[in-house]
Amino acid sequence: MYAQQDTIYSSIMLIPFNPKMYISDVDRALTTKSELSPEEIREKFRLGLDVNLHAQIFTKYNSKPLLKDTSATAFKDLVRIYHSLNYEYAIPERTLLEVEEENKKFKNKIKGFFKKEKEEETIEHGLFHDETSKEVRRYDEDKYLKASVTDINLLPYLHQTYQTELFLFVNQFEITTDFESCIDLQNGIYERVMKVHFNVYDKNNNMLQGDYSEVRFPSTQNDIIFITREHLPKISQHLSTLIPYYK
Predict the structure, then answer these.
(1) C-beta separation of 38 from 22 below 8 A
(2) What does the alpha-carbon distance between residue 85 and residue 64 come to, in Å, rounded to a whole number?
(3) pTM here?
(4) Antiparallel, parallel or unpaired: β 11-15 and 62-65
(5) Which residue, among 131, 167, 163, has the nearest Cα to 151 in the 3D structure?
(6) Ramachandran angles phi, psi of 28, nearest 5°
(7) CA-CA distance, 63 to 57, in Å (whole number)?
(8) Which residues of 191-214 are buried (b: 16+ CB within 10 A; e: fewer)?
(9) 218 Cα distance to chain centroid
(10) Could you read off the pLDDT of 31-90 as tens digits, one per residue?
(11) What separation in angstroms does the CA of 45 have from each of 36, 165, 171, 207?
(12) How many CB atoms lie within 10 A of CB 175?
């Protein structure tokens, strides 16, 4: 039993991202350095992320990496999983909670300066207009790719077959260049962003978490071995902290 005494779940299945959900604008630089094909680069990221997530999550859960299961059943189940997902961009729950808390603090601050009648009048005329605009901008900037499970029998089936209670879906893997964040304009060095979108569901089809994790590094780093060794553990460690463990 690998789960700690105060966890509400004891096991989790790691579901790797669909190869079609790999986005990169840096493959040319990486393939030139490593002499690997874009497909081989993608698989190194896919397998590397899976290994690192397993290493992080294994300290709290009995984790089941589906990618490591070489049985015919696991392969068929992975195909079924990919065919049972719909994707759409959504706002992380943490962002909604943060904005809600900020609005409460803002409104409480206003109440300290105005009488109730004045406050109601100002709200009606848009006192919170700027604050609302800030929310909208924040929503636009802070979204993740959400995976919805369309087959209601899928997760109960996986639970029965693999004895796992939670399911971590890696929805999309991105490694792109942020051309607005220039480190060295003269030498054309920019920041790269590695981002992993994910969802966590329980065996009863309840979504428990949806978010993304990211790391940034210079565009001068083109060694695939260095990138996977240096940055995948960081992104996996951060992602693991976003998974619900405790009551």
Answers:
(1) no
(2) 20
(3) 0.81
(4) parallel
(5) 167
(6) -60, -45
(7) 7
(8) bbebbbbbbbbbbeeebebbbbbb
(9) 21
(10) 999 989 999 999 999 999 999 999 999 888 888 999 999 999 999 999 999 999 999 999
(11) 12, 26, 14, 26
(12) 24
